Amino acid sequence: MVPLPNRTDPAPARWRRPFELWFDAADRGWPLAVFLGLFLVVWSLVLIVAYHGLGLNPDVVEIYALSKDLAWGYAKHPPLPSWIMAAWMAVFPFADWPPYLLAILNAALGLYFVDRIARRYLRGDRRLLLLLLLVFVPGYHFLAAVFNHNIVLLWLWPLATWCFLRSFETRRASWAVAAGATAALALLGKYYSAILLVSFAITALVHRDRRAYLRSPAPWVSAIVGAVVLMPNIVWLLKAGAIPLNYAIEAHVVPSRWTSLRFAGEFVAGALGYAVLPVAIWLAATATATSPRRALALIFSGMSAERQLLLILGIMTLSLPPIVAVLIGTNMPPLWALPGVFLPVLFIVSAPGFTLTRARAVNVAALTVVFALVAILGSPFHAWLESQRRDDRHRIYARPAAGELERLWRKVTDRPMLTVTGEYELAWAASYYVTWHPDFVASYDARRGGGNPIPATIPSAGWAGLCAAESLGCIAWTTQLAATVPRARREEFTVTPAGWGWTATPGRMIAVIVPPSGAAD
Known about the structure:
single chain, mainly alpha, five-stranded mixed β-sheet, two-stranded antiparallel ribbon, 20 helices, globular
C-alpha cells in the first residue's frame, strides 16, 4: 500500500480549496460518489449535445431491435447487452438521450469497479487520481457513446477481475462463486471475454502463490459456477449450430498471415495509445522519473505479490489478443483493448517509488475539469463534423426516415405497424423510433444484394420496408415485393437531417408499405 501524501500548502488558493477537501476525504464514501455523479452528468450532457440530430448508432438500435425478442443467444453476439437494453427501455422514453445515459452509466459503473480493485493497492490521493487519469482514456466517454458488446465490457471486466483477485487471495467459497459467475457474465457480454478467462488461468498458474490457490476448492468452484451460468447459452449455441462463431469467422478472418500481423500491430499500437495520455500525465504529476530508464525502474519497484497479480493480468489481457490474431489469422480491432487498459494504468500508479504531492494531485484534478469543459463547449462542433461525414450516412438519415415511414403508414391505416424490414441499419432504427416499435425481420440482406420472402405469418398483419435509394439491390427487392403484393405501396421520399444550426445533405429513401388486410384504401 502506497503512503498517504500530506497537504503541501496550509493556505491554498481559493480555487484549490474544493479539490483539497475532496482529496482530504479520499478514503471516505462521498468523494467517490461525487466523482461518479459528476462524471455521469457531465459526460451524458456531452454525448447528448455532441450527437444531437445525428440519430443513434446502428449498433445501439440493433441491440434494441434484438431485445424485443429476449433469448439465450443471437446470430452475432451473446445476449447480455440486449437484456440490459430491454430493461432500460422498459423505464425510459424512446428518445436519443436514454441510450447515451445508459452508455455513460455503463462507463461510470466500470470506474466504480476499477475503484473496488484499486482500494487494495491505493489510498488517499492516488486512489482518486487513478479515476481522474482514466477520464483521459476515450473509452470512458466518446468511445463509450455506443452501447454495444464492446463497451459493456468496461464494467464486466473490472467486475470479473475484482472477484477473481479476491478469490485468488482469500480462497473463500463466496468469492469463488462470485468469480465464476462474473466471468460467465463477461462471456455473455461478448465471447471475446474468453481472453480474460485465459488470462485468469495463466495468472493463477504462474503467480508465486499458485500452489495455495490451486490446492484449494476455489478454482474448481469458480469453474463449476461459471459453467452453470453459461449452460443455457451453451445449449442455445448447440441448437443454433454455433452461428455467432460463423459470424465471427466471416467478419474477422483475414486472407493472409501478413494481414493478421498488421492487425496485431494495430491492436498493440491502439492499446498503448489508449494508455499513453494517463501515463504521461501521471509521470508529469509525480516528476520523479528523470529518464525512461528511471521511469521503468520506478514502475517495477516494490513488486509485492499483489502487484504481481496486476502485472501478469495486464500483460495477458493486452498481449494474448494479438498473439491469437496471428495464430488463427484474424483481425482484432484496437477498440477491443479498452476493457483491459485500466490494469497497466493501475499497476503504474500503484508503484510506491513515485512521489506524489498534494499540489500536483490538485493540478491533475483541475486539468480534468478543464478537459470536461472543453468537451462540453466543443460538443456542438463535434455534431457538425459528424453530420458532414460520408461513411456513415445511414445513421443520420435513419431517425427522420423512420418518422416519414410512420407518417406514410398512418395515411393508409390507423392500425399499428407490427413488423419492419429493409436495410438493417434503417430497419433497426425504425424499430426504435416508430411509435409502435415494430419487430425487426431480417428479410433484405445487403451482403447478398437480395432478399428473402416475408414470413407467411406476417402479411395479414401488415409490414413496412425501408431502404436507401442508392442501394440498387434494395430498390430491386422493394419493386419486386410491390409487384407481388396487391395492396403494397411503394413510396419515395427525401429527408434532411438537421442539428445545432446545421443541415446535412438530403437523402432519398424508398419505402414499401403493406397495410393489414382490409385496411388499404
